[in-house]
Amino acid sequence: MPIFRYKGYARDGSAESGVIEADGRADAIRVLKQKDVYPNALIREGRNGARFSLSKRGLDASALAKLTRQFSVLLSSGVPMVEAVRTLTEQESGYARYVLVEIRERISAGAGLSRALEDFPDVFPEFYVNMVSAGESCGSLDLVLERLSDFLETQDQLKADVRAASVYPAVMLGVGMVVMFFIFSFVVPKITKIFEDSSRELPFITIILIKIAHVFQHYWWLIGILLIAGYLGIRRFITRKARTVGAMLMRVPLLRALYVSRFLRTAGFLLSSGVPMLRALRLASRSIGNTYLSAHVEAAEKEVAEGVSLSAALSAFPPIVRQIVSTGEKTGTLPEMLQRAARMYENEFRLGVKKSLSAFEPALIILMGLLVGFIVFAVLLPIFELNQLIK
What we know:
Blueprint: E1 3-10, E2 15-21, H1 25-34, E3 37-45, H2 54-57, H3 61-76, H4 81-90, H5 94-108, H6 113-117, H7 126-138, H8 141-196, H9 204-218, H10 220-240, H11 242-249, H12 253-272, H13 277-285, H14 291-305, H15 310-313, H16 319-331, H17 334-390
Antiparallel strand pairs: 1-2, 1-3
Helix pairs in contact: 3-4, 3-8, 4-5, 7-8, 8-9, 8-12, 8-17, 9-17, 11-14, 12-13, 12-17, 13-14, 16-17
């Protein structure tokens, strides 16, 4: 059923706006009049012309995980699929509501759930659709959806850990840079003014401080240009040399644990849900977030297709991963072993994040202390020398 976005006035003259479902424009006007709403703008929302922002009002990772779990509970309780989707539609709004309405219409017309989800790749990732398709094939869609919700919640928590590891240092460094800019641009010039007017030879450290303050005060625009140019240059280098940068990042233990855990978690999850090995490897390679490691997984997929064992094909992974995979292949418990290894690396990543954050704060305090000490020493040294002359 189409969705219409409306603006109008209620009987008492107050402004009204919102979204309704109707069979057509005339039906939408009739429904609104029954609610004592008189529309002056009525727009049908389309898939390509939807005016609702997915990032602001749609299904982000946490919302998708919540929706998937609710869908699983409804199906496992015996609610028919169309009614389950209808129930979920009633609690959503905006683009998310539009997506669910369109899915319900497709299912009502006879399409399978996985086929209906394929039309919305911006909401449902490829691995999600493949998992639903596997669940429909084996008749355990509710269990697959439950696993999907667990997987999405785990991935969302891991992303939250990544954000915590990157946002806090970025904010602290940003605040520190703003404070230093203010000190060198406004505070230091006023203090050092008395030294510049003096005919006495100043200490070397004081001269350095005056030069730095002069640059910040008169060439701040050049500093801004250099910072922007440096940022754009680094981005371009990362884009053009993605595999080289990925190889460098793999040498950082904390990031290596993150990338390896993403692959292990996704591959183990897909295999445990019935997705074929080669397709599971292809989908897992897209979830890593490291071009260098993704390329190695894609190469491993080709080797596995030629008959090479997975443990032998994963040459770019740590030895412990290859050993765990080899054990899983021999015992027939590969999905479980991959999930176990993923938990190990996720715990390693979380522990590394905590250690890094605990070490970053005192390091930043020490750095700020050194800068403040440099300023204080550069200001007080000429004063001490002047006192010595007076005595």
